[in-house]
């Protein structure tokens, strides 16, 4: 067991500490937000680990269902709590940030870590995933364009969002089997690991998801106070900080695999994770918002649509030759930094 894994196991103590600090010590929003954000990182990793180990016993079919259901659990849970708290801009910002950070920041850092790789990338698969992100952005235009005029949170836009969400989920269903088998192969290729028992994997998954829900609630409730104290807009916090925290498992996994020299797999994880958020998490949150209320329209701002669409197009241009080069990784990270600065300047809606 490597030192990063030991560190992740040890940092799981942050989850109960966060809960105690919130409900026993009644700490302020700033320490609560910092603690909750830090606690979600190892929880996201643990959910990913438990899901992969469960898939070893259930086969690719049920294992794929578990991956689809729990692999993006942190982002989904955070978004639903933000919906219930009446923070639609935070929801859309965090989802936008998840898509953009995966294809620019994570992919870029992975390419830097992997260096000038000899191994060719799966160009066809990567371009397909990026194409799906672009298709999702085009679908988001349906509620986003009328959302530019009048109240962007009006119920009629939420109703207009329903067919868009169903379309994207159907498209995700078509691509799921192949991608989830790829994730299963990724776990199988990790050296020196033995699968947990199914009972242990499912128990760990249940506990980690429950703790993620509790910590996510604390994170969302403290977000506004943290933003005011830090002088940051809610849009910046959700699009940059919350998005990176919610995607911690994919972020860390892709970079570690890149350090092992497996660039083909590392790039697949980063880009596929982005497509999963766009085609699974975003429409799922939109549909589930009708149950937790208020209903969430996918009325993204122009900066969000441009960030996702232009990010996907730029990455497609960079990897078009099927090669991974360190300088291209620095270029992608630089573009992400520019996006972060744009988000900081844009402020709240």
Walkthrough of the structure:
The chain has 349 residues and is mostly helical. It has a single domain, classed as Up-down Bundle (A middle domain of Talin 1), CATH 1.20.1420.30. It has 13 helices and no strands. Helix 4 runs antiparallel to helix 5, helix 5 packs antiparallel against helix 13 and helix 6 packs parallel to helix 11. The protein is globular and about 50 Å long.
CATH class: Mainly Alpha
CATH 2nd-level architecture: Up-down Bundle
**What is the helix/strand order?**
HHHHHHHHHHHHH
Q: What is CATH's topology name?
A: A middle domain of Talin 1
- CATH-assigned homologous superfamily: NCX, central ion-binding region
* Unreliable sequence segments: 186-192
What portion of the residues fall into strands of 2 or more residues? under 5%
Class from secondary-structure proportions: mainly alpha
| Counted beta strands | 0
Quick overview of this protein structure:
The chain is mainly α and 349 residues long. The chain has one domain (3-346): NCX, central ion-binding region (A middle domain of Talin 1), CATH 1.20.1420.30. Helix content is 82%, strand content 0%.
What is this structure's SSE topology?
Layout: H1 3-11, H2 14-23, H3 29-70, H4 73-84, H5 88-114, H6 123-147, H7 155-188, H8 198-230, H9 234-246, H10 248-259, H11 263-292, H12 302-318, H13 326-346
What labels would you give this structure?
13 helices, mainly alpha, 349 residues, A middle domain of Talin 1, single chain, 0% strand, 82% helix
């Amino acid at each position: 067991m490597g030192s990063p894994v030991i560190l992740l196991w040890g940092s799981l103590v942050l989850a109960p500490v966060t809960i105690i600090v919130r409900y026993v010590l009644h700490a302020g929003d700033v320490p609560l937000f910092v603690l909750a954000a830090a606690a979600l990182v190892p929880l996201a990793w643990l959910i990913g680990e438990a899901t992969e180990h469960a898939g070893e016993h259930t086969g690719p079919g049920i294992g794929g269902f578990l991956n689809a259901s729990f692999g993006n659990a942190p982002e989904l849970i955070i978004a639903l709590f933000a919906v219930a708290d009446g923070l639609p801009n935070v929801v859309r910002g965090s989802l936008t940030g998840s898509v953009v950070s995966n294809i620019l920041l994570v992919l870029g850092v992975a390419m830097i870590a992997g260096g000038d790789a000899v191994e060719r990338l799966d160009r066809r698969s990567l371009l397909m995933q990026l194409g799906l992100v672009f298709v999702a952005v085009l679908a988001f235009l349906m509620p986003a364009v009328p959302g530019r005029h009048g109240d962007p949170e009006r119920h009629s836009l939420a109703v207009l969002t329903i067919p868009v969400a169903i379309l994207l989920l159907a498209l995700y269903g078509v691509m799921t089997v192949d991608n989830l088998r790829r994730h299963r192969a990724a776990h199988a290729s990790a050296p020196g690991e033995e699968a947990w028992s199914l009972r242990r994997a499912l128990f760990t998954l249940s506990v980690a998801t429950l703790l993620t829900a509790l910590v996510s609630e604390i994170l969302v409730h403290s977000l506004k106070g943290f933003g005011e104290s830090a002088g940051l807009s809610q849009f910046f916090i959700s699009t940059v900080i919350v998005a990176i925290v919610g995607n911690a498992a994919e972020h860390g996994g892709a970079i570690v695999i890149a350090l092992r020299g497996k660039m083909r797999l590392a790039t697949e994880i980063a880009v596929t994770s982005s497509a999963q958020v766009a085609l699974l998490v975003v429409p799922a949150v939109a549909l589930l918002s009708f149950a937790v209320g208020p209903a969430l329209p996918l009325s993204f701002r122009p900066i969000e649509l441009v960030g996702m669409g232009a990010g996907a197009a730029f990455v497609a241009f960079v990897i078009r030759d099927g090669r991974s080069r360190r300088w291209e990784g620095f270029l992608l990270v630089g573009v992400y930094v520019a996006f972060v600065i744009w988000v900081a300047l844009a402020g709240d809606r």
